[in-house]
Amino acid sequence: MIAYATFGLLGLLSLSIPVGIVLFLLGFGLDIFFTPFPLMRGLGNLVWSTSNNPTLIAIPFFVLLGEILVRSGIATRTYAALDRWVSWLPGGLVHANVATATMFSATSGSSVATAATVATVAMPQAEKLGYDPRLFSGAIAAGGTLGIMIPPSINLIVYGFLTQSSIPKLFLAGLVPGVGLALAFMAVTVILCLLRPSLGGTRRVFPLAQMLRALVQLIPIILLFAAIIGSIYKGWATPTEAASVGVAGALLIAALFGTLNRDVLGQSLLGTVKITAMIMLVVIGASFLNFTLAAAGLGNELQTMLGNLGLSPMGTIFVIVGIYIVLGFFIETLSLMVVTIPIVVPLVVAQGFDPIWFGILMIVLIEMALITPPVGLNLYVVQGARQGGRMSEVMVGAAPYALTMLAMAGLLIAFPQIALFLPNAVQ
């Protein structure tokens, strides 16, 4: 059955059928051939119970928050401000790409939205200032991946929903690895530009007065992040309530900057509906597929297969990491998560590993899938914003950052406290 499910999934995806529909079709097929009773009769109840879960209500709020920040021009102001603070480093404006992605990730929750925002703002500067197009675009694609690690993260919300894990703990666990990855990206950029100065373009140093004035543009984003995350950890709000507070804060910031109008609000709401509909179709389809797989006994089959291999707990983790790396080349990231989580996480927990820690390890591997061809979404987002040049340039530029993510995965396996320190400290 494992082979049928795997080849069925890959075969349907190769036909360019929307991912959510693929999950439903695969569930129907497995139900007909491998389960003893017709699960489709309970499809309506399953769809309703999945979509009615209060945890998932946070998703459209966080999507709307990001849309408002993009449409109202706040992201452009943030980029310009960070340019004045980090462009003196070897690599110059490349660091502004990573820093802006980091700050935008702390409010948007979406990697694709983060990459698209930074790419739209930054790309016009690349040719003007003489930056190597490979490194410049690769850094944007890599920085965008931080959107699913640094809280609030839509993917962490989905992981918490599917595994019944604490979302506030997942948010805390993702903070140190997320910031660590951002700093590692900047360190890699510095090293590359010291070795080959031609990659980094012109380093610029701004007067202190300009740098201090630029802080005014950063304060609203910092306060917004503090309000969202602080309200969750102080116990004043659930993640869903905190997301709604974030939307109100984003509207207030846009109004104060004078960029809130009917068009901005309408485009933000329309974008939110489109993105949320896509996410929910995938989540509901995955819930039905996972229900079918459980009824067909796939979990027991996998446990038996791994038991016959005679692997140690750490050996099992390495096998799972290898599987995620390979699947990440071919399957879209959210789909990869929702399809595998209900199957893999029980196996990991049975081996004695912490589900919060594994969630962060999985997110790092999912991040890497966003910038590895042929299906790395952020690569296509950045290439689309470039409006010229070869796709291979973005792939080559992102390669050093993908290796950095792999190194972070290794650190998380060797030192689990990197992810667990903050959740345990808050307890």
From TrEMBL:
<comment type="function">
    <text>Part of the tripartite ATP-independent periplasmic (TRAP) transport system.</text>
</comment>
<feature type="domain" description="TRAP C4-dicarboxylate transport system permease DctM subunit">
    <location>
        <begin position="8"/>
        <end position="418"/>
    </location>
</feature>
<comment type="subunit">
    <text>The complex comprises the extracytoplasmic solute receptor protein and the two transmembrane proteins.</text>
</comment>
<dbReference type="InterPro" id="IPR004681">
    <property type="entry name" value="TRAP_DctM"/>
</dbReference>
<keyword id="KW-0472">Membrane</keyword>
<keyword id="KW-0997">Cell inner membrane</keyword>
<feature type="transmembrane region" description="Helical">
    <location>
        <begin position="55"/>
        <end position="74"/>
    </location>
</feature>
<feature type="transmembrane region" description="Helical">
    <location>
        <begin position="170"/>
        <end position="195"/>
    </location>
</feature>
<dbReference type="Pfam" id="PF06808">
    <property type="entry name" value="DctM"/>
</dbReference>
<feature type="transmembrane region" description="Helical">
    <location>
        <begin position="12"/>
        <end position="34"/>
    </location>
</feature>
<keyword id="KW-0813">Transport</keyword>
<feature type="transmembrane region" description="Helical">
    <location>
        <begin position="215"/>
        <end position="236"/>
    </location>
</feature>
<protein>
    <recommendedName>
        <fullName>TRAP transporter large permease protein</fullName>
    </recommendedName>
</protein>
<keyword id="KW-0812">Transmembrane</keyword>
<keyword id="KW-1003">Cell membrane</keyword>
<feature type="transmembrane region" description="Helical">
    <location>
        <begin position="135"/>
        <end position="158"/>
    </location>
</feature>
<comment type="similarity">
    <text>Belongs to the TRAP transporter large permease family.</text>
</comment>
<feature type="transmembrane region" description="Helical">
    <location>
        <begin position="401"/>
        <end position="422"/>
    </location>
</feature>
<keyword id="KW-1133">Transmembrane helix</keyword>
<feature type="transmembrane region" description="Helical">
    <location>
        <begin position="272"/>
        <end position="296"/>
    </location>
</feature>
<dbReference type="InterPro" id="IPR010656">
    <property type="entry name" value="DctM"/>
</dbReference>
<feature type="transmembrane region" description="Helical">
    <location>
        <begin position="356"/>
        <end position="381"/>
    </location>
</feature>
<feature type="transmembrane region" description="Helical">
    <location>
        <begin position="316"/>
        <end position="349"/>
    </location>
</feature>
<feature type="transmembrane region" description="Helical">
    <location>
        <begin position="242"/>
        <end position="260"/>
    </location>
</feature>
